[in-house]
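One thing: mind reviewing this one?
=====
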Amino acid sequence: MKTVDTRGLSCPEPVLLVKKAISEGEYPFVVLVDDATPNENIRRFANNNGYTFEVVEENGEYKFTFTK
């Protein structure tokens, strides 16, 4: 499974990396996030565009799993 590691990156870069992963069409894929702002922005982007995902929070980090 493909992993997109956005930890340590500032917006809009995490959202752009998610868009790129979606355009590549490899599902499922995981996105790792370590900050509240990219977490909120990725959620908003995915919800507004109808993408299916689950999020698990662990030790202040978030793991998004995108599925088709």
